[in-house]
């Protein structure tokens, strides 16, 4: 309920001020869409199965649940990665270059994220990788057990782990470390200016934090 209400509030706010949205904010909207999609398509089945202590439905509902989880999960991860990269680029760009990230560019990026997520989600349906119940039997996801039992499952899980988890995570960490380093260097520059008036110093610090 909180997931649906919170992300619905984000989408409603974005719709109200759609003409005022900056291009990077479209990624926040996309993240809300992915989160609310996961909540609507997966949570009811997951909650009902948890109360039942066993998966409700047959193989078809299991594949559906796993497909939705993988689609929205990869989309969320890649959106977070894109947000980190854009923030890094804006932070490290001159003011004149920071406006080059247009809405069209971000829309193309969002379309790529969804196509990338959809590709990985449907690969198990066309023969590379498998979907199946989780060990506790109350939800479905990638068949992790196939990692040891099948070369097909091994190659899929390894590729997915590297391209949908490790690489985006490392990119996110690298970008935010780069931003933190930039902030640290800027703060040092402020500290080195001894004769700057207190009001101006405070204003620069507040601007830096923003």
Automatic annotation (TrEMBL):
<feature type="transmembrane region" description="Helical">
    <location>
        <begin position="26"/>
        <end position="51"/>
    </location>
</feature>
<dbReference type="InterPro" id="IPR000276">
    <property type="entry name" value="GPCR_Rhodpsn"/>
</dbReference>
<keyword id="KW-0807">Transducer</keyword>
<dbReference type="Pfam" id="PF00001">
    <property type="entry name" value="7tm_1"/>
</dbReference>
<protein>
    <submittedName>
        <fullName>OPN5 protein</fullName>
    </submittedName>
</protein>
<keyword id="KW-0472">Membrane</keyword>
<keyword id="KW-1133">Transmembrane helix</keyword>
<keyword id="KW-0675">Receptor</keyword>
<dbReference type="InterPro" id="IPR050125">
    <property type="entry name" value="GPCR_opsins"/>
</dbReference>
<dbReference type="InterPro" id="IPR017452">
    <property type="entry name" value="GPCR_Rhodpsn_7TM"/>
</dbReference>
<feature type="domain" description="G-protein coupled receptors family 1 profile">
    <location>
        <begin position="6"/>
        <end position="210"/>
    </location>
</feature>
<dbReference type="GO" id="GO:0004930">
    <property type="term" value="F:G protein-coupled receptor activity"/>
</dbReference>
<keyword id="KW-0297">G-protein coupled receptor</keyword>
<feature type="transmembrane region" description="Helical">
    <location>
        <begin position="106"/>
        <end position="131"/>
    </location>
</feature>
<keyword id="KW-0812">Transmembrane</keyword>
<feature type="transmembrane region" description="Helical">
    <location>
        <begin position="154"/>
        <end position="179"/>
    </location>
</feature>
<feature type="transmembrane region" description="Helical">
    <location>
        <begin position="63"/>
        <end position="86"/>
    </location>
</feature>
<dbReference type="GO" id="GO:0016020">
    <property type="term" value="C:membrane"/>
</dbReference>
């Amino acid at each position: 309920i909180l997931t649906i209400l919170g992300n619905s509030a984000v989408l409603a706010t974005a719709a109200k001020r759609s003409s005022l949205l900056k291009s990077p904010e479209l990624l926040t909207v996309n993240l809300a869409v992915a989160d609310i999609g996961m909540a609507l398509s997966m949570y009811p089945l997951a909650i009902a199965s948890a109360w039942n202590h066993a998966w409700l439905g047959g193989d078809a509902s299991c594949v559906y649940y796993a497909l939705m989880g993988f689609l929205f999960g990869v989309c969320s991860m890649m959106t977070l990665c894109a947000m980190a990269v854009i923030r890094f680029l804006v932070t490290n760009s001159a003011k004149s270059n920071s406006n080059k990230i247009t809405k069209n560019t971000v829309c193309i990026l969002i379309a790529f994220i969804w196509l990338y997520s959809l590709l990985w989600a449907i690969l198990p349906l066309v023969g590379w990788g498998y979907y199946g119940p989780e060990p506790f039997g109350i939800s479905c996801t990638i068949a992790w057990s196939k990692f040891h039992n099948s070369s097909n499952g091994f190659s899929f899980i390894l590729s997915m782990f590297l391209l949908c988890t490790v690489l985006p995570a490392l990119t996110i960490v690298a970008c935010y470390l780069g931003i933190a380093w930039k902030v640290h260097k800027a703060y040092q520059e402020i500290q080195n200016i001894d004769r700057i008036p207190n009001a101006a110093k405070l204003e620069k610090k507040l601007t830096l934090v923003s």
